[in-house]
Specification:
about 750 residues; Rossmann fold; 9-stranded mixed beta sheet; 31 helices
Length: about 750
């Protein structure tokens, strides 16, 4: 087969691939993928899904597409025979900057699974020119610069389709870009991205600053532009409306082309609102249907039947509510409709807390979503229960039939086959290839949990993956890491509720313990990957403290052989693909009740890491799958946390005063060692926050965290084979967390696609 592939690549390159450059080969492979993917485009009958999301963190697509299209092995073999490396060619591909955290990565996994399951479903989002930002560290401080990723190599292609979008009384033209999404032995769907031709990257000044009021030039420059001022907050609304208005017009046009008369829209389209960013699609669709001659009451009924809503968090910052004055400026055409929707709600319930427009004139997007969609789902069993019992209890009482759970999942093609070929190969040798499409087959691995040779192979694979991460860190950041150490990784968005600061306090505690001669059973490398939002001051202070501590430890000859902190710059999908296969201990330490699900926990589990975590999000379901003896759980329960918030009796200062180890760690932040290497202003601000506020209850969980992490280090050292046995049990039970399973449940219970 490789000879046939060689001839094909020669034709696409228009030369012998032995003489072709990596850039030429990359473009040839793009053509190959495009040809093959077009063969898998199928017509749509019945309902089609439109998944609207502010983020799609899709990662590099070349190898993933080659795997999904069944071309990967032949291409790799043909290139190797010509003295070429597929890994080197992949370096030509820019990392798409269309997302940031778990929300965006989940959306990407969902698109992959939709196509794999042969379900008609497209994504709808924005074509950001610079993503969130490119992160770099200088003077132990996060710096933000534009991530100019859009090049001729970008797979998202412009179309001639343009939709008019009215913003603040001025008409703009939203151009449609299409990016093919291939499924594994499935169909090809599309990620639809909208942009303005007038957006101008040259308006970006120092760092990522720009004129937030010049909408024609800035609208799609950045994902989540700085909203610390009024202009920034309004810009968020501009972005969101561009996405939903152009998206709604695309949906109506595609459905009409298939014979929809708009009255029966729900027979042609299912719309999933991914968090509250796309909420304005509800009034926008009602407005557009009104233009088609459909009365308000019927339009409301149509939209409710068509749309569904996913809630991803209980954090207030993500449950968007906008001053009506902002909406009156940016989308004046929607406010009369939102007012009418609020009046409908007032007839359904006397409970003012469920209103769309509150007494202060704030428009609650999540409230609109729940009232005027037919489904509201959480993303993990615990999260959904909290929504029904407390956070959204009023809505649950009003609409019990709407609430359901859809535990998140990940695509195994990306997070096992693509990023961990060594482990994939071993699994295939043991149980065959059926798990590629049916992740539940991973349970067959349990037959080998006491097979010493298999466990030793697992250990060897982990060792090689750790060496590969060491090589990559040396190449990318010039950091030398001990591959024989235990690799402890916390990689996720930097947010206080995710509690990177708890890990920070532990590392300071370990510093003191080692200085006192209490050596750990194994050297520990603590690896972080995270971006902090530019305006999130405390989050950036946590990064500064970790980077400063890493310098203090590195300079200490007593501590440095036993402890190292590594902070990966500009954490993205490519970095994750290197880090996750190398991980020994996965940090999932959010404050119980605050993490809706998490998907990093699933990726680490799948790749043979054990979880250290609270009973939060999907950690609950992971513990149920693997058994409490194969996971390290610590800390308060969600009920304890919720009760503490309700009582309002938490005082961080009392915990600080009451625990000498905790006090020692917090005091160290402004000690001479740290202030000599870092900024006393930034370190003092973080210290004050921890001592006096600590909104996400880091301090009550500190002692339990220290003990449980110490136990993990001891277990890792004391019985390496038993550690690998427990890793195998985690891999074997990871099948539940396949996004294929999640999407199948969405389709069964909510979407009913193709029917």
């Amino acid at each position: 087969m490789s000879e046939t592939m060689t001839n094909k690549l020669n034709d696409l390159c228009k030369k012998d691939i032995k003489t072709a450059s990596n850039e030429e080969l990359y473009h040839a492979l793009l053509k190959l993928v495009d040809e093959k993917s077009q063969q898998q485009v199928h017509s749509v009958t019945g309902r089609k899904l439109y998944y609207i999301s502010a983020e799609f963190l899709i990662g590099k697509l070349l190898s993933n597409n080659l795997i999904n299209l069944g071309l990967y092995d032949d291409v790799k073999e043909a290139l190797a025979a010509a003295g070429k490396s597929l890994a080197d060619i992949e370096e030509q591909e820019p990392e798409p900057s269309l997302g940031n955290g778990g929300l965006g990565r989940l959306a990407a996994c969902f698109l992959d699974s939709l196509a794999t399951l042969n379900l008609p479903g497209d994504g709808v989002g924005l074509r950001y020119h610079c993503g969130l930002f490119h992160q770099n560290f200088k003077n132990n401080i996060q710096n933000e610069t534009p991530d100019f990723w859009l090049t001729d190599s970008c797979a998202a292609q412009a179309t001639d389709t343009v939709f008019p979008v009215s913003l603040a009384g001025k008409e703009y033209s939203a151009r449609l870009y299409k990016l093919p999404i291939t499924g594994y032995e499935g169909r090809t769907n599309t990620l639809n991205l909208f942009d303005l031709d007038t957006v101008d990257e040259s308006v970006i000044g120092d760092g990522i600053s720009f004129d937030k009021k010049d909408i024609a030039k800035n609208l799609t420059l950045f994902l989540y532009p700085d909203d610390s001022d009024e202009a920034g907050r309004q810009l968020r609304i501009y972005q969101q409306y561009l996405m939903v208005s152009a998206g709604a017009q695309l949906i109506l046009a595609e459905c009409a082309a298939r014979g929809c008369d708009y009255h029966n829209l729900a027979d042609y389209a299912a719309i999933q609102i991914n968090d509250t960013h796309p909420s304005m699609v509800i009034p926008e669709l009602i407005r557009l249907l009104g233009e088609k001659g459909i009365a308000f009451e019927e339009a409301v009924e149509i939209v409710t039947k068509t749309c569904a809503y996913t809630n991803h968090t209980i954090l207030a910052e993500a449950l968007e509510k906008w001053p009506r004055t902002y909406l009156e400026v940016v989308v004046p055409q929607l406010m009369p409709i939102i007012e009418k929707l609020d009046a409908v709600v007032a007839k359904r319930t006397k409970d003012k807390s469920l209103a769309i427009i509150d007494k202060d004139g704030k428009v609650h997007m999540a409230h609109m979503d729940i009232h005027f969609t037919h489904s509201t789902n959480g993303v993990a069993a615990l999260h959904t229960q909290i929504l029904m019992d407390s956070e959204l209890n009023g809505f649950y009482k009003l609409y019990p039939e709407k609430f359901n759970n859809k535990t998140n999942g990940i695509t195994f093609r990306r997070w096992l086959m693509k990023c961990n070929p060594l482990l994939t190969g071993q699994i295939e040798n043991l149980i065959g290839t059926g798990f590629h499409k049916d992740a539940a087959q991973l349970t067959k691995l349990l037959a080998y949990e006491n097979d010493t040779s298999v466990l030793e192979q697992l250990a060897a694979i982990k060792k090689e993956n750790k060496r590969e991460l060491c090589r990559w860190l040396k190449q990318e950041q010039g950091i030398t890491v001990n591959p024989d150490a235990m690799f402890d990784i916390q990689s996720k968005r930097l947010h206080e509720y995710k509690r990177q600061q708890l890990n920070l306090l532990y590392l300071i505690h370990q510093y003191f313990e080692i200085k006192a001669g209490h050596l750990p059973p194994v050297p520990l490398v603590s690896i972080f990957g995270a971006k902090a939002a530019p305006a999130y001051i405390i989050a950036k202070d946590i990064i500064h403290a970790l980077l400063t501590l890493s310098k203090v430890i590195a300079a200490d000859p007593v501590v440095s052989p036993w402890l190292q902190i590594v902070f990966v710059e500009n954490y993205n999908v490519t970095a994750a693909e290197k880090m996750i296969p190398a991980c020994d201990l996965s940090e999932q330490i959010s404050l119980a009740s605050k993490e809706a699900s998490g998907t990093g926990n699933m990726k680490f589990m799948l790749n043979g890491a054990l979880t250290l975590g609270t009973m939060d999000g999907a950690n609950v379901e992971i513990s149920q799958q693997v058994g409490n003896e194969n996971i390290y759980i610590f800390g308060q329960t969600s009920n304890q946390v919720i009760r503490r918030y309700a009582a309002g009796d938490y005082k961080a200062s009392e915990w600080y005063e009451g625990d000498p180890n905790l006090r020692r760690a917090i005091d160290f932040l402004t000690g001479p060692e740290m202030t000599a290497a870092g900024s006393s202003e930034l370190l003092s601000r973080l210290q004050t926050e921890l001592k006096n506020k600590d909104w996400f209850q880091t301090l009550p969980d500190f002692s339990a965290y220290v003990v449980r992490k110490g136990q993990a280090l001891a277990d890792y050292t004391a019985n390496p084979l038993d550690w690998r046995r427990r890793c195998l049990i985690n891999i074997a039970n990871a099948g539940l967390f396949s996004s294929d399973r999640t999407i199948a449940e969405y389709d069964r219970d909510i979407w009913h696609l193709g029917k």
